[in-house]
Structures are given as structure tokens and as C-alpha cells.
Amino acid sequence: MKSRQSGHQTSLTSCRLYAPLYKFNPLAEQRYLSLAPTKRVEYEDVFQYQFNGVNAGDTFNFLVSNGIADIQSVLVVPFLSSSANDGMNPFLSPYSTAGATPDPVPLQQFNILLSGVNLFLENSEYDFQAFSHHLASSNQLNGGLTTGLGSGLIGKFEFENLYRYYYGNASRSLPSEEGVSRSVQIVGKNASAQQISLMVFVAFKRSMTIDIQTGARVM
Amino acid sequence: MINSMSVEFNNQTIVQQTPFLNVFRSFKAHTSFSERDVINHGNELGYALDTASSWGYSTSNNLSGRGVYNNEFAPPTSGSALSTNWDLGSHNEGLRKRMEITNKLSSGKGKSGVVAEATRGLLYQSRCVSKSPTQIVWEVYAKLRLKDLTDYFEKVPLLKGSTMRFLINTNQAEVSFTPTASNLPAVQASVLSGNTFPLMLTSQKATSATASGGVSS
Fold this sequence. Notes:
Helix content of chain A: 10-25%
Number of helices of chain B: 6
Number of strands of chain A: 8
CATH architecture of chain A: Sandwich
Mean pLDDT of chain A: 91
Number of domains of chain B: 1
Shape of chain A: globular
Structural class of chain B: alpha+beta
Number of helices of chain A: 3
Strand content of chain A: 35-45%
Number of strands of chain B: 9
Strand order of the largest sheet of chain B: 2-1-7
CATH class of chain A: Mainly Beta
Mean pLDDT of chain B: 88
Distance between the termini of chain B: 33 Å
Strand content of chain B: 15-25%
CATH topology of chain A: Jelly Rolls
Order of helices and strands of chain A: HEEEEEHHEEE
Largest interface: A-B, 71 and 80 residues
Oligomer: heterodimer
Shape of chain B: globular
């Protein structure tokens, strides 16, 4: 990388990719390849949507998508709109941490509807609901249920003051619902004093089967 | 730093290109990293959680900038904010830690007598290379763990003979600003690539006994 102004250039002039490479004990390799010659990989991919111009105190009801199959989670990240941020897009403000953090925007009456069915039994009205019931278990070891074995860096203090991620785990479904497209809708109320934008990420499951001996994709 | 990434496996797209990937992966990091992950890998990844309570908001002249700002990295010089306003986290400790990693002037305090600046360059160390009244130059190396960019690399098994292709779009932007004695102006960055300005301008406010800032009083 080279500085436009000074012409200074870093010592490392191109990016590097390091990948682990293992040399198997022949017996272990034979066992590894013969026990399960194909492996099915299930992983998450993401869709991103944005909804702008929710005024202070207004309720919102957005249809995020008409249909996505195998939805795993829905994440709503609120940001101030440019007009509320003194004319600066929060992502392009040199003073803000937006992007790495949400903006400190509270939402009330929040719910996620999948094919018209509420994901949360009751609308999320208060901070303790949005944090304890939904966010606190997200992406954590055993959902944060094992005392002494936890992960995650966002506590209630962090949630209340800045990290206002609104998250719904939608991964639990009946076998009959697998592969069936479901619509995604978000409802709520902007409880802040400023106009906001909402960024929505819908994570969904993908899968593929690989022949581990040849590296070919089987399915 | 990354705006989007797509992955092809044997010429088939298996991870689609999604903008604002930095927002989603930041959420993943905040909710899945443990404190030990931050201790072991925070420095090399440039990761330190921003303090939640140190942000402010201003639409008038302000030495810490305009709109929402969270760029005061220097703690109060003495005493405790507890006695004045109960705002315990008045400075952004995460920003301060990230600056420790990237802003250290490696030749300072006579260190260059032991490890020459040129040697640090050859070792690919992130550092402040030079400072003058008109220009500061940093070299910052970014380590991107593939498993932090997409879930696929967390799940993929040992295999051989596959071809993978990554398409990575970075966030690149530049900002031009003229600070005054009383104000950091409302300016937004111009995007060269991506959607997010990945750098921060720190506060010009002087610290006091009970207030955080960006320069010593």
C-alpha cells in the first residue's frame, strides 16, 4: 500500500494468504478418507437490507424479504440517519465508531415476524427483554447457559449504552419447515429523539457435500 | 476494514457478496469472542471493544467532533468521574488500546539504538514510522482470519484438491478537514471503495481532572 500524499510505501507490498497444510501419517490418512469419504458442510450466509427515514417516535413495519429458506437469525442494527448526525453519514463520520458498533438508538415494541408469525411471544418493550431474552445467548458457547464457560463481550451495560443490536434466533424449526421459504418482517418503534435508519441482516443456512479425497463438490 | 467478500469453490459461488459485511462480522465478534480471545488475538486483529458509555452527541462547535462521537481516548488526569457525573466510562478505552497497537513511535525513547527503524520495517511491525509538524506516517498491517469473515471457513473440513477464489472489497476512504481552536468540523469522508470510513480522528479536547479528551491539558 502506498500513501498518496507522501509516496511512503509499506515494506509488505502485496497481501499474503497463509493456509494450514498437514502431512498425514499414511495410516491416519487412510482412516480419515475411508471413514467418511464425503462430508456435508452446513454454514451461514447473509442477506443485507436497509430501511431509512424512521422519524423520532414513529412506529415502523417493514417487509424485509418475501421469502428466504432456512433462516437462522435476523439482526437489526439501528443507526442515526445522516440528517440526524449533523449531515454526516454515520459510516463516513471520522468521529464515530458506527459500523463497528450500532448507534445508541433504543427501539420499543420490537418484534420479528416470519411468515406472519411472531418470533418473540410478546413485543420486546424494555432493555432487559431485548438483551436477556434475545441478545445474551447469541453466538455464545452453549447459548451462555453453562456457568463458568461463556463467551461474548456485550453485557447489559454495553447493550444499554451503545451496543443496541436487536437479534432474533430463528434457527429452531420443524423438519417439515426446512427448505421452506419464509417472509421476514420487522415491527417496532423508534424510541430515540432522532431520525434513524435500520440495517437488517438475515442469516440463512447453506450446505454442500464435498468429496474430501478429490476436493470435488458432490452436492 | 472489509466491505464485502465472496467465495467461489471450484468455480461455483458458495458465499455471496454482501455489502456492510463489517457491520455483521463486528456483531459476530462482539458476541462470540471471549475475553481470552481478545487477550490472545486482539492485538494482531486490531480488535478492542469500544467503550459503550464514552460517546457523545453534538450539533454545535465541539473539540471532539460533530454528530455522534466516541473519539475521546485519554482518561481524566486525576480524581474520579464518579464524584461529578457518575459517567464511569468517560473515555473510549477500546480506541486507546487500538492506538497503542498502531500508533507507537517505535524509535522513541532511544529504542532505535537497539532496533533500527528499518529493521522494524523488515519485520512488518505496525507502527508510527515518522512524525513531523506537517505529516505523520503509519504502517499498519491487517491480519484477516478467514473464519472471522465468513462462517464457511469455520466449518470446512480438511480436504485436498479444491480450488477456492476469494473476492474481497475493502473499505477505503479519505477525509479532508480543517480544525479550529474550538471545533472539529462536520465533515464526512469520501469513499474510494466500500461503504465505511475505517479510520477515526481523535478528539482535540484537553483532558482535565474529571473529563476525558484527546490531548493532555
